[in-house]
């Protein structure tokens, strides 16, 4: 590693020292103007190549091709370097059917062959320069070899110090940071690259990838939309843009973007799978399965394909075929947590509950922070009414995830364990996130009632009745309101309003039957009880009420 630093610094240091200490000599015969212009073109081309931006590389290539100096060995060599750098970094800017060949004795073809093979290119000391310093790190685009990455990082540090205007160090540093999962550092490096060269589209694409992953959809779209519209068609950009549009629910636009990706690469596995995801969101399950079948025919297994196909089959009720798909996925990708979780869930859905739970517990040992695994185990414990086990798993889940599902599970477990304070905490959080959603308002009111905070519960119900329009939810709210009143006539009015909103509200029917019996109106009590029995004859509450009435 140090061997790389010393020769380069020595080279630049000796060059500077030579300039400072050389004795003054009598001026030689002046260089002919044409030759001097050629030297200046070569010098400018070297500076432009060092900047490594799309504009500077194309400028170097163009200036050399239009000048006599470009036909010298050095000119042809530099033209080749600019061409190869565009090819590796900015292929969308390459002219079609356009090839540059280097001079026969050039040192650069072996360097580029090593780069494209993912190897560190040895640079002869006689050829050491800023250009040869920034070229070997390009090998990281073709390899994950730890040794190559370490050498590249050291060389990039040197290059950034020697030429802060070069876009290559911050771009490759961002690329390496993104690849290692250090998204904040990657974003900062990509931003530095884009500040130096807004046309460095690989940095923009890398930034958009991270923003999409972080669900910053508007920012990702703002980057990708102009790239998709102005650059030559590119499969990666089209797919990434389609993913953003899909996440935003803009399905026709997502389908249009993925169609462009098909035109660029009609046999891309990733494109076919993404197209199937879009078809799935459109509700066209048959088309989605056909697209996944086409992807399978390419012969390259893919975790996303397996997960999507299994989910589509399960949604169509094909539990056993879905289980077969996931079982193959577990064998092909034994370390994939998502496939493992879905396989365990599919086992449970197929009636193999013990086997499924045991499998998920086993995968949890390998990845104790798997939110999906914990949620599945909690769901299974709730179904089995094993509240102690559910509470145990929740103790592990809640520090990892504050999702709506996790809080709903926590609320249900707290209710059944008699933890009214905990139930209210979870219900309040969910209602605060979704203040206009009756699905979260009703548990909140129930939790307030259970905690003895009837005044707050009544205020919450009245607030909900002002904003909620869904008849079933309003019926439930009026029923809850009736439980908060002590005056029988006020309770009766609330229950009647509840039934006006939803004649099939079982709880309201039973409550109004009890209330009429308390008021001494046995005929009305019997009429409402018979109505409840006609709706749900096997309901335990209905059976109990009928038994109490005597048949």
Summarize the structure.
The chain contains 30 helices and no strands. The chain is mainly alpha-helical.
Explain this structure to me?
The structure is a single chain. The protein has 551 residues and is mainly α. It has 30 helices and no strands. The chain is elongated and about 120 Å long.
Features:
single chain, 551 residues, mainly alpha, 73% helix
Globally, the shape reads: elongated
Order of helices and strands: HHHHHHHHHHHHHHHHHHHHHHHHHHHHHH
Head-to-tail CA distance between termini: 91 Å
Write down how many β-strands occur, each being a DSSP E stretch of 2 or more residues: 0
Rg, Cα atoms, Å: 35 Å
Parts with pLDDT < 50 across at least 5 consecutive residues? 1-29
Structural class, by secondary structure, is: mainly alpha
Rounded mean pLDDT is 85
Q: What is the assembly state of the chains in this entry?
A: single chain
Residue share in helices?
over 70%
**Biggest pleated-sheet summary:** none
Give the DSSP E fraction (strand runs of 2 or more residues). under 5%
Task: Supply the number of helical segments.
Answer: 30
